[in-house]
Write a structure and sequence with these properties.
Layout lengths: L5 E3 L13 H10 L11 E3 L16 H6 L2 E7 L13 E2 L2 E2 H10 L5 E6 L2 H9 L4 E3 L7 H10 L10 E4 L9 H10 L7 E7 L3 H4 L6 E4 L5 E5 L14 H4 L3 E10 H8 L5 H6 L3 H6 L5 E4 L10 H8 L4
Parallel strand pairs: 1-2, 3-6, 3-8, 6-7, 9-13
Antiparallel strand pairs: 4-5, 8-12, 9-12, 10-11, 10-12
């Protein structure tokens, strides 16, 4: 990871003002240890003095952080149920997988590879100079594909290196999101990290296909759900956004290598089955997930109709 920046102090500009409850806002400003600024992606350490409430995180040194390797892995499966061959779909003259690769390349990672199960994707990625590794077609998730891909890397990742699972269906992803994830690992307690963004509209809040997340004051995930969480008692659902700040999960993950190996060996959990969300398996087994708040969100391609939208004038 290039140009890592550390800044002492507590960020009060972005996160606190998201919540309409002024008292809670003040508490959040005082205790939230991490803040991502859209204008300048920077790791922000909490104040060194102990604050009331949750203890400040044990932040690793600049030297330790600089020695980490940050490795991006783009899972690219050909046999998608809703959109077969999706990675090779053309968007404004380039394939989707090439656009994802080019955007991710701007994040300044130490290494970047595509993990695929199909020779057509492998040959195409190699044709534009990308790195690619072949993986099994039987993986149930992108996380499992990332785990296998890590086995084929030379040199192999170290246990404290960070692997980023970059969504292969977001052709216009923001490199800033990847940098934001990497910055979260300046805290040595973080082994798994992801991003969330403030919910802006009621349709998103109540859409079961848009996963929501709640966190504690320190930014650790408490739960992910397809339902709107938390439930706002005493108000009709149409008024919930005015009474609470809701967060939608963006679905991009980063893992220290030792954590990735551990979670890949876990069996499917009851909560995961109920919500069909693999991150609940990790929470249910005691793994903590740090959630960074971002201002960036890129459009995902799930169906052929989504490509047509991206091809429309103005995109």
């Amino acid at each position: 990871m290039k140009n890592r920046v550390f800044t002492a102090g507590v960020c009060q500009q972005d996160l606190g003002r998201l919540n309409p409850d002024a008292r809670y806002e003040q508490e959040r400003e005082a205790m939230y240890p991490l803040c991502i600024h859209p204008e300048s992606v920077t790791f922000v350490a909490a104040k060194s003095k102990r604050l009331k409430g949750p203890a400040s995180p044990n932040v690793s040194s600049n030297i330790t952080f600089s020695r980490m390797k940050f490795i991006g892995i783009i899972p690219a499966r050909y046999a998608s149920t809703r959109f077969p061959g999706k990675p090779l779909a053309m968007i404004h003259g380039k394939t989707m997988i090439r656009r994802v690769w080019e955007q991710a390349s701007k994040a300044g990672l130490d290494n970047l590879v595509v993990a695929t199960d199909d020779d057509r994707i492998r040959e195409h990625v190699a044709s534009f100079g990308g790195k690619v590794v072949m993986t099994s077609p039987d993986h149930p998730s992108g996380t499992d594909r990332c785990r296998e891909a890590s086995n084929h890397m030379d040199p192999a990742p170290g246990d404290h290196d960070v692997l980023i699972n970059i969504q292969g269906d977001e052709p216009y992803l923001y490199p800033e999101q990847i940098r934001e994830l990497c910055d979260l690992f300046g805290d040595e307690q973080v082994r798994i990290a992801t991003l969330a963004k403030k919910v802006e509209d009621a349709e998103t809040l109540h859409d079961p296909n848009r996963v929501k997340v709640v966190t504690d004051h320190a930014g650790w995930a408490l739960y992910f759900s397809r339902q709107a969480i938390p439930y706002v008692k005493g108000f009709p659902t149409a008024e919930w956004l005015g009474e609470h700040t809701f967060l939608k999960h963006l679905g991009v993950y980063a893992f220290r290598y030792d954590a990735l190996k551990a979670i890949a060996a876990l069996p499917v959990s009851s909560l995961e089955k109920a919500e069909s969300l693999e991150q609940l398996r990790w929470l249910q087994n005691g793994f903590r997930i740090r959630v960074g708040i971002t201002a960036y969100e890129s459009a995902a391609v799930d169906r052929p109709e989504d490509v047509k939208k991206l091809q429309a004038p103005g995109h």
